[in-house]
């Protein structure tokens, strides 16, 4: 077992949803169910646009995650049906929310072995956004908690929130490396505070996450097909997080 508190080890930031385990595919399936539910009133594409607009408003008030998603569907269903959606149908939407929260964590390929390997050489700092109760439950259910040095659930993954988290844990941003599937949330804000990032794309993205997101052309950001390639990359990629640990 590595000494998870070993101060000499560099700190490696890890995203959770769609980096360590499947997430968006579950939300996309529920969204498809929602489109079917409101099909008597609107076509699927119009339902998706309305749900996205409402979702943005709910995230501003309630944060990211399953709670905002469910509230958005309830509100959007009422709007699109002009109030004629039934109580049973609203109850069905709520049940989809419970199913999302209760569904088992599905690790992406080779994640468990990769984190076990990375934990020997790095202090692993998981940084995720969403509903804290849901996110922390997923960390526990994932079986990965024993490899993690710290877990942070933040309201937004922007430069300020990364800076706050790193300061709280005594990590110099210039020695910090973040790994995740989202350019918007895991790469750009870390570069903005002087850190480094590795992009591990996932095939499926929410419209909220990747809308209007710039390309990575011109940035020194490695792109990996799978997380299992990360230990090899870190061994061959000189940088302060590896060569000059805090
Ligand atoms: Mg993610």
Q: Could you tell me the radius of gyration in angstroms?
A: 19 Å
The structural class is: alpha/beta
- Average pLDDT confidence is 90
Count the domains. 2
Describe the protein in words.
The protein is an alpha/beta fold and 246 residues long. It folds into two domains: 11-21 and 105-243, HAD superfamily/HAD-like (Rossmann fold); 25-102, Putative phosphatase, domain 2 (DNA polymerase, domain 1, Orthogonal Bundle). The chain has helices at 24-37, 44-62, 66-80, 87-102, 111-118, 132-142, 159-168, 183-192, 207-210, 230-236, 240-243, and strands spanning 11-14, 123-129, 150-154, 177-180, 196-199. It has a five-stranded parallel β-sheet with strand order 3-2-1-4-5, sandwiched between helices. α1 (24-37) crosses α2 (44-62) and α3 packs antiparallel against α4 (87-102). The chain starts with 10 loop residues before the first strand and ends with a helix. The protein binds magnesium ion (MG). Residues 15, 17-19, 180-182 line the site of magnesium ion.
Write the layout of secondary structure elements.
Blueprint: E1 11-14, H1 24-37, H2 44-62, H3 66-80, H4 87-102, H5 111-118, E2 123-129, H6 132-142, E3 150-154, H7 159-168, E4 177-180, H8 183-192, E5 196-199, H9 207-210, H10 230-236, H11 240-243
Parallel strand pairs: 1-2, 1-4, 2-3, 4-5
Helix pairs in contact: 1-2, 1-4, 2-3, 3-4
The structure holds magnesium ion.
Brief account:
With 246 residues, this protein is an alpha/beta fold. It contains eleven helices and five strands.
């Amino acid at each position: 077992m590595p000494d998870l508190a070993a101060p000499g080890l560099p700190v490696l930031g890890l995203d959770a949803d769609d980096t360590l385990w499947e997430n968006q595919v579950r939300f996309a399936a529920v969204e498809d169910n929602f489109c079917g539910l409101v099909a008597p009133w609107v076509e699927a594409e119009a339902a998706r646009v309305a749900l996205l607009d409402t979702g943005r408003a709910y995230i501003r008030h309630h944060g990211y995650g399953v709670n905002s998603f469910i509230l958005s569907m309830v509100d959007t269903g009422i709007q699109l049906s002009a109030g004629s959606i039934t109580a049973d149908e609203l109850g069905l939407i709520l049940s989809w929310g419970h199913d999302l929260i209760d569904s088992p964590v599905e690790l992406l390929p080779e994640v468990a072995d990769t984190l076990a390997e990375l934990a020997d050489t790095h202090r692993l700092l998981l940084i995720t956004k969403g509903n804290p109760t849901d996110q922390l439950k997923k960390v526990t259910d994932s079986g990965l908690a024993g490899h993690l040095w710290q877990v942070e659930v933040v309201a937004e993954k922007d430069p300020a929130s990364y800076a706050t988290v790193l300061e709280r844990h005594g990590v110099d941003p210039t020695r910090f490396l973040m790994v995740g599937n989202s350019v918007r949330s895991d790469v750009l804000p870390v570069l903005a505070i002087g850190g480094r990032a590795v992009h591990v794309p996932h095939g499926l993205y929410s419209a909220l996450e990747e809308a209007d997101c710039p390309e990575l052309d011109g940035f020194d950001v490695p792109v990996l097909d799978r997380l299992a390639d990360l230990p090899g990359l870190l061994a061959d990629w000189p940088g302060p997080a590896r060569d000059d640990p805090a």
